């Protein structure tokens, strides 16, 4: 975990305590984009329980294991469709840059590009699937 005064991994420029920490501590993210950013931060910080809690029950796997050699380096939001505080669904397209170690032992850099679907139920946003 990181200190609340450290920059948040999600890339907003805010410190963690003013950004994703509140969602990680149980507050409901107000938008699909805020949830997506908090899920990226959860990957970066190694918070699998949060990822499962924010995954929609209809598509959630029984467990999730994070790869300890993958370091999430940067998040770029490409596009947001709906997903606002009064919407019930939304789509967020993003690119997440990572660094890891390949089977050969070489450093591997890459970008995960994804278009994700989200739904809001009972005031909480959930990740559903890739669109």
Task: Describe this structure in a few short sentences.
The chain has helices at residues 20-24, 32-45, 48-53, and strands at 71-82, 89-101, 107-121, 124-130. The protein is α+β, with helices and mostly antiparallel strands and 131 residues long.
Whole-number mean pLDDT: 96
Domains (count): 1
The main pleated sheet reads as: 4 strands, antiparallel
**CATH class category name:** Alpha Beta
> What amount of the residues lies in strands?
35-45%
Overall, the morphology is globular
Fraction in helix: 10-25%
Under the CATH scheme, the architecture is Roll
Terminal CA distance: 30 Å
The number of distinct β-strands equals 4
Are there runs of 5+ residues with pLDDT below 50, and where? none
Strand order within the widest sheet? 1-2-3-4
Radius of gyration: 14 Å
CATH topology: Nuclear Transport Factor 2, Chain: A
Number of helices: 3
Helices and strands, in order, run as HHHEEEE
Domain YchJ-like middle NTF2-like: 31-129
Family: Belongs to the UPF0225 family.
Protein name: UPF0225 protein C7K25_04365
InterPro entries: NTF2-like_dom_sf, SEC_C_motif, YchJ-like, YchJ-like_M
What would you note in describing this structure?
A hairpin with a 6-residue loop joins strand 1 and strand 2. This protein has a four-stranded antiparallel β-sheet with strand order 1-2-3-4, with helices on one face. It has one domain: Nuclear Transport Factor 2, Chain: A (Roll). The protein starts with 19 loop residues before the first helix and ends with a strand. By secondary structure, the protein is of the alpha+beta class. The protein has three helices and four strands. Helices cover 19% and strands 36% of the residues.
